[in-house]
Amino acid sequence: MALPKSFAFSLCFCLSVILCSLVANATDVSYDGRAITIDGKRRILNSGSIHYPRSTPQMWPDLIRKSKEGGLDAIETYVFWNAHEPVRREYDFTGNLDLVRFIKTIQDEGLYAVLRIGPYVCAEWNYGGLPVWLHNLPNCHIRTANDVFMKLFASQGGPIIIAQIENEYGNVESYYGDAGKAYINWSANFAESLNIGVPWIMCQQNDAPASMINTCNGWYCDTFKPSNPNTPKMWTENWTGWFKSWGGLDPLRTAEDVAFAVARFFQYGGTFQNYYMYHGGTNFGRTAASYITTSYDYDAPLDEYGHLSQPKWGHLKELHEVLKSMEYTLTYGNITTTELGNSVSTTVFATNESSSCIFGNANSSSDATITFQGNTYTIPAWSVSILPDCKKEAYNTAKVNTQTTVKVKSVNKAEDEPESLHWSWRPEKTDDTQLLGKGEVVASRLMEQKEAANDASDYLWYMTSVQLSKDDPILSGNMTLRINETGYILHAYVNGEHVGSQWAAYNVFNYVFEKPIKLVPGVNTISLLSATVGFPNYGGGFEDIKTGVAGPVQLVGQSGDETVIKDLSQHKWSYKVGLHGLKDELFSSASRFANKWSVEGLPVNRTMTWYKTTFKAPLGTEPVVVDLHGLGKGHAWVNGHSIGRYWPSYLAPEDGCSVEACDYRGAYDNNKCVFNCGKPTQRWYHVPRSFLQDDENTLVLFEEFGGNPSYVNFQTIRVGTICANAYENHTLELACQGRPISAIKFASFGKPEGTCGSFKNGTCDGTTALSILQKECVGKESCSIDVSEKKFGSTNCGDIVKRLAVEAVC
Ligand SMILES: *[C@@H]1O[C@H](CO)[C@@H](O)[C@H](O)[C@H]1NC(C)=O
Ligand SMILES: *[C@@H]1O[C@H](CO)[C@@H](O)[C@H](O)[C@H]1NC(C)=O
Ligand SMILES: *[C@@H]1O[C@H](CO)[C@@H](O)[C@H](O)[C@H]1NC(C)=O
Ligand SMILES: *[C@@H]1O[C@H](CO)[C@@H](O)[C@H](O)[C@H]1NC(C)=O
Ligand SMILES: *[C@@H]1O[C@H](CO)[C@@H](O)[C@H](O)[C@H]1NC(C)=O
Ligand SMILES: *[C@@H]1O[C@H](CO)[C@@H](O)[C@H](O)[C@H]1NC(C)=O
Ligand SMILES: *[C@@H]1O[C@H](CO)[C@@H](O)[C@H](O)[C@H]1NC(C)=O
Ligand SMILES: *[C@@H]1O[C@H](CO)[C@@H](O)[C@H](O)[C@H]1NC(C)=O
Ligand SMILES: *[C@@H]1O[C@H](CO)[C@@H](O)[C@H](O)[C@H]1NC(C)=O
Ligand SMILES: CC(=O)N[C@H]1CO[C@H](CO)[C@H](O)[C@@H]1O
User: Fold this and answer.
1) pTM of the complete model
2) Which of 293, 418, 615, 754 has its CA 20 to 30 Å from the CA of residue 451?
């Protein structure tokens, strides 16, 4: 595919829209070997990724405000080309694709923006953000720049301080050989020619051309060195967690380890880092990449629904505050790092006026005690201590002084809402496809799904017929239908009868389908429904991974000892894209079929079935989820808005879960701390409040595999329990996020044991904590407690650093 030079035209359109509408106080953004500079001053910048299509415009201000409160300076987003130009030359910048509004919201909240224009985005986004129609352009060569477009860039102002071209191409460049290298040169020249007046970056690109800053992505980036010493050390993707795939486990990354990675990056001279993701959100519609779940929570500091994910959000907020307090020394001070052995090191950032220190212990098992300028410090294993004045530890990444929240789901039904939902249903019409084999396009070969369906739908029918005479040998014994399938889901029908369904797993693209069938003398209709679950988004050549019924498609029979094979691959195949119900927009109240649903004989476990119900929005303002337990696989809509694909029948593996709470010590990867074994990969689906109306709402499901809708119900998510830990001489903050603290279940000062939900008094704890907490916190939305012996009285714990542990109920 001639991917490279084709993106400019389309993207020009989209970017000129954005940049034209952002005329604001222009700032002078540049960089040197140390840091990004803004109006001439070197800066420490903490940025976080929020992808605008993964939430709603109504959620944006709150998400961005919480990012700012969490200590971020900038919000980073990709631009999702295939969302903005789903059909060639047809653009969409409405609703949650209103990029201008998103950037302006960032600006209104007083943050900077970092724009990664792609064209390739990765991001577990369908086809890496590239429109599938690109794949089908005959000789796609689109202009690389034009005057109108370039003029628009030259004068831009607004909040965008950094722009990125391409994305992690370095990881896959060798796949493309010289063409890849040339592409990187071309991208760089293109970007530079835009003359937008802000620095350009290329991440994971060791051979980045001189005009580009190459940056690091990964779990840890402390050892990264930019290829050009005159560019700052920047970390564009600091993975706060990980994504989830259908059939996969829930990955978690501890707050301690994310903080460790960030603090270490700054210890080793970093000055810009971006959390990927700060808010992950939801893959609405068909935006998820191959086998990626609808939830894109990512275990990010803001959860899928926009709630603070604690303690991660708060622990990082404290880190940002302390780093910010050292901005001058970190960016202007002379850096002296001393390696003390066993992975322990001290770094001093010294200016003439003052010094700051960061001590690191990357040893995953041994705590370290060091003496520095006459004082003794203990640095726990796998942690970093920060001393803004080189004397007193203000922050240690392993000591979490922030509350943990446990969220609960509750049913908050409107008053007159019945106990269970009333359903109506319709079958998906399949006579033309399953019985007649009648499609819209005919070819004497098996077409690749991208080519045949152009990503207009997940669904593509492949249909053919076979004429058999009475004495055809294939009719003399058992028969099977055998199909080589590439990826995704296959449902096979012979003469209108379902003979079987099969599907691939995440990142496994090929399988062979073989099921017994019955053929009859005369005409037999073979109908295959191929369903994609998003296209791949990553890896060299991901754009060419085949999809659909690759073939061969064979009828296999037994005649005596002989195996008889009829290969249907070169037959005349008829193709039909999509489903009748999708074309008729059964999910929309405006559909002309809106009234033609049946309430009689509600089917259970019936494939290819549409279900509809009405419901009242749950009371309150908390985020809403719908529990789709009991359903198979399909797509869901609320008031005509897609809430994404669902697949609760796909269970996570029984084995492989982390047995205990995750140990933050030691190098993390996405397989280290995983949970949810044996449970539905995703059971609850986000219904943004803005999709709901006050009176009646409609939920429509298209059930592909067969399921039972009678368990479906709506719930709200709120903070249930909060736990907090704070060490001596710190402040403990408790907050219920919008409701009062109703009770203190546990409080102890000294050496309490256990973790949230199972705290226990230690051997030397004082006796005053519970009553103090009850007095100062119950009935309040938040409270703040000084943790000290002065407040709680002395303990028998001796010299150790004491802590206060609290569990409260919201
Ligand atoms: C890329 O540009 C560099 C420097 O401008 C040049 O040395 C190199 O030959 C170019 N590579 C390709 C493949 O065009
Ligand atoms: C960690 O510390 C132990 C004991 O001090 C030492 O034996 C080991 O080599 C250290 N590991 C690393 C990676 O520094
Ligand atoms: C920083 O390093 C420079 C060059 O080595 C030296 O001249 C200067 O005195 C140093 N400043 C401090 C505060 O150490
Ligand atoms: C720091 O002090 C050194 C030596 O006293 C002096 O040469 C240098 O100009 C000072 N630097 C700054 C930034 O004040
Ligand atoms: C045909 O299949 C049936 C069911 O699988 C099996 O019992 C039978 O032995 C098979 N017949 C032959 C001729 O293989
Ligand atoms: C079909 O799949 C089988 C099993 O993986 C494989 O042996 C065969 O080569 C495949 N055929 C084609 C044409 O890819
Ligand atoms: C649904 O139907 C399929 C195929 O008919 C069957 O294998 C499955 O056990 C059924 N599931 C339930 C929950 O009844
Ligand atoms: C912990 O100790 C306090 C004071 O001695 C006591 O009131 C409380 O019940 C104990 N809590 C638990 C969970 O044992
Ligand atoms: C806490 O502060 C008190 C009073 O300033 C001091 O005596 C004590 O050593 C401090 N404890 C710790 C663990 O820093
Ligand atoms: C190439 C790649 O993996 N890019 C990604 C970095 O990590 C996350 C994974 O969640 C995103 O997909 C990035 O775009």
Assistant:
1) 0.89
2) 293
